[in-house]
Amino acid sequence: MSLRIGIVGAGSIGCYIGGALQMGGAEVCFLGRERMASELAEHGLHISDFRGMKYSLPASALHFHTEFRSLPELDFIIVTVKSGDTAAIAEQLAVVGTGGATIISLQNGVANAALLSQAMPSALVLSGMIAFNVLQRGEGRFHAGTDGAVIVQAAPRLDKIGTALVASGTPFETHRDMRSVLWSKLLLNLNNPINALSNLPLKTELSQRAYRRCLALLQREALAAITAADIPVQRLTAVPASMLPYILNLPDFLFTRLAQPMLAMDPLARSSMWEDLERGRKTEVEWLNGEVISLAREHGLNAPVNSRLKALVHAAEQGGRRDYSGEELLALISA
Ligand SMILES: NC(=O)c1ccc[n+]([C@@H]2O[C@H](COP(=O)([O-])OP(=O)(O)OC[C@H]3O[C@@H](n4cnc5c(N)ncnc54)[C@H](OP(=O)(O)O)[C@@H]3O)[C@@H](O)[C@H]2O)c1
């Protein structure tokens, strides 16, 4: 198969998806930081998932760049930086030129593809999203801890990407209405700040009703704004999106029975926002809760729960607390 892919932002998602595409037969070149280049040069790249898939690429099989200008000619450029870095990446790509490559944003949030498109008006930029979670385990190891597919805006020439991903065991879908897919994913991502502030693995956090009640409150505000904006909500989990707040509110014994697929994940999986706080980096909270607050405002609504949680995450970014119990968090955000 002739398929040349550039991964711009080789971190958790970039290394996992790049590794999966290379496993599926694509030629992949990674662009990332010096730190990641050294880690992969020393240990190679190892991807695995919670179902038991394992695949390793030796360092000699990897093409890793740290300079934009050294990127070769590519069919697709997949952007996998955090949302706060998209503008800078877009500017650098616009300067070096993308040589006709199709650009795919595989990021959370709802605004990244538009930002990329603004900087590169002549390029075809597609929105995409990843429904599963990837954790960096060090020494070149990237582990998918939850279930889910890669979904990309329907467009010509995506079949080879789909074939390579499916060959690696990663489900791939296209969708015509990515705006609604991204907002539906954002609803689920509202758990990221809760997980980050709980300092617990996702499975432990979601098994506790008080944390789930926090998530239900955030989702109710988001659903109100999404409905006011007339954005259809897609079903991305076993539970229809509109039912999520009700299911999350159930007592633990009922939730663990009725919502078992929502807990089918690696017991050690955590959100990437937890990883950001752990590393002392700025989080994507403005691109998640911040978007809910803006959409609500645009439609004459308020989103006070999302505002309070956003403020707590910003405090944690500045070194504040990030070990709240579910009850403490619930009291603080619903005050
Ligand atoms: N991780 C997950 O489980 C997951 C799941 C679904 C969706 N997502 C979404 O996918 C996106 C990527 O998340 P992630 O967790 O993979 O992030 P990540 O681990 O931080 O990876 C991004 C990488 O890009 C690097 N980078 C940033 N700017 C760069 C530049 N100008 N040049 C070269 N490298 C640069 C970062 O380095 P520095 O850190 O040094 O800046 C980092 O290594 C986010 O929107 C996230 O919400 C993540």
Automatic annotation (TrEMBL):
Its EC number is 1.1.1.169. InterPro entries: 6-PGluconate_DH-like_C_sf (IPR008927), 6PGD_dom2 (IPR013328), ApbA (IPR003710), Ketopantoate_reductase (IPR050838), KPA_reductase (IPR013752), KPR_N (IPR013332), NAD(P)-bd_dom_sf (IPR036291). It catalyses: (R)-pantoate + NADP(+) = 2-dehydropantoate + NADPH + H(+). Transmembrane segments: none annotated. Gene3D superfamilies: N-(1-d-carboxylethyl)-l-norvaline Dehydrogenase, domain 2, NAD(P)-binding Rossmann-like Domain. Residues 177-316 form the Ketopantoate reductase C-terminal domain. GO terms for molecular function: 2-dehydropantoate 2-reductase activity. Keywords: NADP, Oxidoreductase, Pantothenate biosynthesis. It is an enzyme of class 1 (oxidoreductase). The keyword Oxidoreductase applies. SUPFAM superfamilies: 6-phosphogluconate dehydrogenase C-terminal domain-like (SSF48179), NAD(P)-binding Rossmann-fold domains (SSF51735). Belongs to the ketopantoate reductase family. PANTHER family: 2-DEHYDROPANTOATE 2-REDUCTASE, 2-DEHYDROPANTOATE 2-REDUCTASE-RELATED. NCBIfam families: apbA_panE, PRK08229.1. This is 2-dehydropantoate 2-reductase. It comes from Zhongshania guokunii.
